[in-house]
Amino acid sequence: MTTPVKPNLRNPIHLLAFGLGSGMAPKAPGTFGTLAALPVWWLCLQGVPTLPYLGVLVAGFALGVVLCEQTSRDLGVHDHGGIVWDEWIGLWLALLWLPSGWGWVLYGFVLFRLFDIVKPWPIRWLDKHVHGGFGIMIDDVVAGLMALLVVQLTAWLM
C-alpha cells in the first residue's frame, strides 16, 4: 500500500490550488474552499466593473488550468478533493452582477454549491469526460454559470 502524497503548501502552485489551504479541511473541502473564496471576492471583486471582473475570471480560469493540472500530477490524483481553485472561480462567476445584500451573496453561494454537488447535465458529463486541468476547471465554471443564470433570473423576476 502506498502512502498518499500530500500537497506541499510551501509550493505556491499547491497553495493556490488548495485555496490558500482551505481545501485541507478534513470534511467538505469543496464547501470550505468555496467559503474561503468569499472574503477574497468581498475585498477584491465586489463592485468591480464588468470588464475587469471578467478579466479576472478569464485569467483565474487560465491560471487554474495550470495549477490544477500540476497539482493533480504532483499528487497522483485527478481532481483531488482538496483542489478548490476551481470552486473559487466558479463562485466568483456565480456572484457576477450580484444585487447588493448578504442575502444575494448567500443565495449565489448556495446555488453554486448545489450545482457543483448535484452536477446536473452538462456538469456531470463534463466531470466524467473532460480531463486534466481544463477538466477540473470547466465543470465548476459551468456550475457557476448555472448559478449566475438562476441568480439573475431571480433578481429580474423580483
Automatic annotation (TrEMBL):
UniProt record, GO biological process: phosphatidylglycerol biosynthetic process; phospholipid catabolic process
The UniProt record lists the keyword Glycoprotein: no
YutG/PgpA domain mapped to chain residues: 16-153
Transmembrane segments: 50-68, 89-112, 132-157
A Pfam family this chain is assigned to: PgpA
Ribosomal protein listed as a keyword: no
Any single GO CC term annotated in Swiss-Prot or TrEMBL for this entry: plasma membrane
UniProt pathway: Phospholipid metabolism; phosphatidylglycerol biosynthesis; phosphatidylglycerol from CDP-diacylglycerol: step 2/2
PANTHER family membership: PHOSPHATIDYLGLYCEROPHOSPHATASE A
Protein name: Phosphatidylglycerophosphatase A
Organism: Bacterioplanes sanyensis
